[in-house]
Amino acid sequence: MKKLKLVQQIVNEGVVAVLRGETPEEVVRMAEQAIAGGIKVIEVTMTVPFALKAIEELASRYSSSDPESDRYAIIGVGTALDPETARAAILSGAEFVVGPSLNPQTVVLCNRYRIPIMPGVMTIQEIQTALELGVDIVKLFPGNLYSPSMIKAIKGPMPQANVMPTGGVSLANIGEWVRAGAVAVGIGSDLTTEAVKTGNYALVAEKAAQYVAAYREAKANAN
User: Fold this and answer.
1) pLDDT digits (tens, 9 = 90+) for 67-109
2) Is the peptide bond before 49 cis (omega within 30 degrees of 0)?
3) Which residues does residue 139 pair with via DSSP β-bridges, in sequence order?
4) How distant, in Å, are the alpha carbons of 86, 203, 218 from that of 212?
5) pTM above 0.70, yes or no
6) What is the residue-wise DSSP string for 106-154?
7) Candidates 3.40.50.300, 3.40.50.1010, 3.20.20.70, 3.40.50.720; correct CATH number of 2-217?
């Protein structure tokens, strides 16, 4: 049941912060600010040096068990290319796994341990394969290669597909993605670029709050 609960929590939150940085300490700072700004789903990518240290630190400080707690957050891993990476991240505290592509062995591993897995897909064939493997949410990646109308096109033959665009989602177009049927969105460099450039990590919280507000407004108007 925990997997189903986590999937529902991710969908309820709707915005996933995809964090990359030079050090695990930097990513932890980004995550703290993103959570403070209202983004409660944090994806630490494995491109971060010693990424598992960041996941361990965040997983020890935040919990998905109580949405009313001020320590509520869902910590996951991104850029998981293979089942070995996914398993190491799960042992470090990751509660969901995201990959840039569809690796069937990674999906099998995550299903074995009842961990939500969101693989990257680009084609209808990949989406169908993901559904057949038991994937609950597919990540449309890179999202900047598509327009929001891609989701409607996918849902023509596959209305049961839950799609999360990542890459290319911005404050300017997040509403279009949500209205097109995205169940969640992944936000990457736009969330952190200015903070890294200036050294003012409070800017991450400000941008996070803007994304959460824009998502909720779009969601309300879409219903």
Assistant:
1) 999 999 999 999 999 999 999 999 999 999 999 999 999 999 9
2) no
3) 120, 164
4) 28, 14, 10
5) yes
6) HHHHHHHTT--EE-EE-SHHHHHHHHHHT-S-EEE-SGGGS-THHHHHH
7) 3.20.20.70
